[in-house]
Each structure stands twice: as C-alpha cells, then as structure tokens.
From TrEMBL:
A GO molecular-function descriptor: copper ion binding
InterPro entries noted in UniProt: Cu-oxidase-like_N, Cu-oxidase_C, Cu-oxidase_fam, Cu_oxidase_Cu_BS, Cupredoxin, TAT_signal
All copies of domain Plastocyanin-like, residue ranges: 37-150, 354-460
Keyword Metal-binding: yes
Alphabetically ordered keywords of this record: Metal-binding, Oxidoreductase
GO cellular component: outer membrane-bounded periplasmic space
Protein name, UniProt field: Metallo-oxidoreductase
Keyword Metal-binding: yes
Entries under Pfam families matching the protein: Cu-oxidase_2, Cu-oxidase_3
Length: 461
C-alpha cells in the first residue's frame, strides 16, 4: 500500500506510528542529476568515454518500488542541452509522461523538474530522456525502473540486465557526434559497434548449480534488435514489456528483444560446476556471450518444477467486437520509395523532405507532435490499430500511456505490450482500451526513425 501525503499528515496528526521507511518515501524528493561524465566503458586498455548519465552513471541508478507506490524524482539538468525524462511503460498520468514538446517543456540546462507519479503495474520498466532522444539515449541517459509484485518469487537471485549498443570510435574512445546522420535516419537507425550489459562488455555473475534466477532484460539501444538465446540455462519467458504472460513460455531457440522492449525470464542454472551459463547474442553468423553466470558450486537444491505465472496487472480488457478500427501505414525510408509519403504529405517533394531530414511517413504524412493526432479517442473506448510496415526495415512501435494487446493470428488477444516489433512487410493489429486521458505518443523506438517522421499521437478525452 502506498500512503499519500495527506494520509501521512492525517496519521501523524492522530499520533499513529509511521514506519521510518514510509516516512522517508513520503518526504524525500530524490534527485536524479543528468550530467556529462567520463566512464570506463571500453576495456581497460582504452581511454574513458564521455557519456551523458544520471547521477554519474550510464545506465543511471535503478529505481525500485512496490506496485502501487509513488515515484518522486527531481531531475536536475546539468547537461549542456535541454532534456526531459519519460517513464517508459508506466501507465502514468499524462502530465508526468515526460515528452518534451507534447506533455511538458524541455528542462533547460541549469534547471530542474519534479516528477511525481504512481506505478499501477508490477514489472520491468525503464526511464530515458525524451528530448532529442536519438542523441540523448545514445549518449547514456537511461536507467531501469522496477516495480515489484506484492509477493516475492521463489528465486535465488534477480538480475536487471540493460543491453545497450554504443557507437564508439575506438581511436578516441569517444561517441562520434554524428547524431542525425542522413544514413541513420533513412536506413536501420543508429547502429553501434560496442554492446554492453549494464555498461560492461564482460558482465559476469557467480551462481550455484540449480540456482533459479529472475532476469529482467531491457533493450536500451537506439536501433539494434537483439537476437538472444540461452546456453547452460533452462528458461521461461514470464513477462513481456512488464506484463506477465498467462502461462510461462519455455525458451526453445532464440528470441528477439527490440529497442525499448523488456523480457522477464526465469532461468535455472543447468551448467556444470566450473562451467558457466550464458545469455548469448547472435549477430548474423556469429554468437557472443553477453552475460556469463559462472557456476561456482553445487547448489543445495534439486531442480525445481516449472515456474508459475506472475500475477496479472490491472489492465482493462479490450472488447474487440466493439472496437474502433484505425489504420496506420508506415512508409518511406531508403529502398522503400517515398511515393506515398510525397503524394498525400505536407512535404511537396522528396527533396524537401530530405532537406528537412524527414524520411518516413504515417498514412502518407510525415509525422511529428504538431498538427493533428492520428485519432481523437473517447475515454473508455476500445481501439484496434492495424499497423502495416510498408518499408524495407524493421520498426519497434511504442504507445505511451497504455499497454495494448497484440492480436494473435487466430484473432484472439495476444500478449500485452507497450512496444511491438514489425519486420519489413509485416502487418500487426493491436488493441487497447483508451482509458488514460491525455496526449499519448505512438512512435517508432528506432530513435532516429522517430526523429525523422515515424511519430504520431493519440488524444484521449
Ligand atoms: Cu521509450 Cu516515446 O519512448
Ligand atoms: Cu523505425
């Protein structure tokens, strides 16, 4: 249970004992300072890398709260540029959504902004800059936001694993200031050359054989879709984008983690003592160990039975029979032809679009936060959006403020997500109850694409 400030005042007035923990949670506004900082990101023989981080770290400090509790953070902007913070995946109050240019003004350098919101759903979430995010997220402005279920799971350890894909010049150890490069905007996005987990290229953990771990995977990369697998670990997917699956899904082969997506796994360490379990990343024909779990001892426990499902979150269930249908056709980019975008769009020619750095379109228009929304929705109505990826690249479409169901091939409600990956040519229907009032972005989380036209919003009133 979380206490509001008013509850707390009432309780102290009545002379009721308040736990020190509850008290500090209510009275301390924790600072999250965004600043420029030097980190040893590359292996030790290289120079440090200048990144933008929170509290001197990239990723920033983990925020961990109980389901239903409040998060209060004062963002102090010590960066040389305006910024804002979005709490990705939280079904949040609109004013706290952190979208510079839509729900608030960017926080100027030297100033601060107070975020204060409740997290209604348990699960794995994250926070990141939402101003020039194609630059600021790539420079390191992100961190984990973990909302715990009321009851502890039967596990031995938990690890939050933030995967990132940095573009770093090995000569200088620095991040090249090539943000907004035309090739990144118009192709697959800003892909990096150096992959880290929690800021390390060789993350390893000591475990015992038969330990059961909960792994919370977060993809903080600008554009890379990670293809992952397990080795020496038996695992189940138990949640996607924070939301529990009805039934844990055993992992057999590889799975994809698109930018901004999260996957919660339960894994059992089955590697022998002296060996290691791995999260393996596949890149074309090669594979790399991304995280190693070194088996130091024979655990005391025998193997356990398959895990149970996590308790569901209180997300309203869409009624597909009454859904309002909306179409969203994604067009543009290199090798895709901008014809559709040019014909109906605000830009009069391909050349004007390119000069404006705009390469993508939704339903024939270059998107953005200005102009009119994709749809004005009445609060409580069920919406079904048919998204068609008519481009030559994959895109990870993210809706703010509300989770949606992917519609399965048989027409039923599939997994609840906040970010859905569409491969080239793919069509996906998503459905949700528009129960959260406000202006909510719907954009590609390949952040260079969002900056060059793949962005729209819905208005719920
Ligand atoms: Cu995680 Cu609009 O973003
Ligand atoms: Cu995209």
């Amino acid at each position: 249970m979380s206490l509001t400030k008013r509850d707390f005042l009432k309780m102290s007035a009545a002379g009721l004992a308040v736990l020190p923990q509850a008290l500090s949670a209510q009275t301390t506004l924790v600072t999250l300072r965004a600043s420029v900082t030097d980190l040893q990101l590359l292996p030790e023989q290289y120079e440090k890398t200048t990144v933008w981080g929170f509290e001197g770290h990239a990723p920033g400090p983990e925020i961990r709260i109980a389901q239903g509790a409040r998060v209060t953070r004062r963002i102090v902007n010590d960066l040389p540029a305006p910024t804002s913070v979005h709490w990705h995946g939280i079904r949040i109050e609109n004013a706290m959504d952190g979208v510079a240019g839509l729900t608030q003004d960017a926080i100027p350098p030297g100033e601060s902004f107070e975020y204060d919101f409740v997290a209604p759903d348990a699960g794995t979430y994250w926070y990141h800059s939402h101003n020039r995010s194609f630059e600021q997220v790539a420079r390191g402005l992100h961190g984990a936001l973990i909302v715990e279920e009321p009851d502890a799971l039967d596990i031995d350890h938990e690890e939050v694993l933030i995967l990132d894909d940095w573009l770093i010049d090995p000569e200088t150890a620095q991040i090249p200031d090539t943000f907004g490069a035309m090739h990144d905007l118009s192709h697959a996005g800003r892909l990096g050359n150096y992959i880290t987990t929690n800021g390390r290229y060789n993350l390893s953990r000591d475990v015992a054989r038969h330990d059961r771990l909960r792994l919370r995977l977060i993809n903080a990369a600008n554009a890379r879709v990670f293809q992952l697998g397990l080795d020496g670990l038996d695992g189940w997917i138990v949640a996607l984008d924070g939301m529990p699956l009805g039934q844990p899904q055993p992992i057999d082969g590889t799975f994809l983690l698109a930018p901004a997506q999260r996957i919660d796994l339960i894994v059992d360490v089955v590697a022998e003592v002296g060996g290691a379990g791995h999260i393996v990343q596949f890149d074309r024909d090669e594979s790399f160990s991304q995280v190693a779990f070194e088996v130091r001892s024979d655990g005391t426990r025998a193997r356990r039975a398959a895990p149970l499902a996590l308790p569901p979150n209180p997300v309203p269930v869409p009624n597909l029979a009454e859904a309002r249908d909306i179409a969203l056709r994604m067009e543009g980019g290199a090798m895709g032809g901008m014809r559709g975008a040019m014909m109906g769009g605000r830009m009069s020619s391909m050349r004007d679009m390119m000069q404006a750095g705009q390469f993508w379109a939704f339903n024939g228009s270059v998107g953005g936060m200005d102009g009119s929304p994709l749809a004005s929705l009445s609060r409580g109505e069920t919406v079904r959006i048919k998204i068609t990826n008519d481009t030559s690249f994959p895109h990870a479409m993210h809706l703010h403020g509300m989770h949606f169901h992917e519609i399965a091939a048989d027409g039923s409600l599939g997994a609840l997500r906040d970010t859905t990956l569409l491969q080239r040519g793919e069509v996906r229907d998503i459905a949700f109850v528009a129960d959260n009032p406000g202006k909510w972005l719907l954009h590609c989380h390949m952040l260079s694409h969002a900056a060059s036209g793949m962005m729209t919003w819905v208005d719920v009133a």
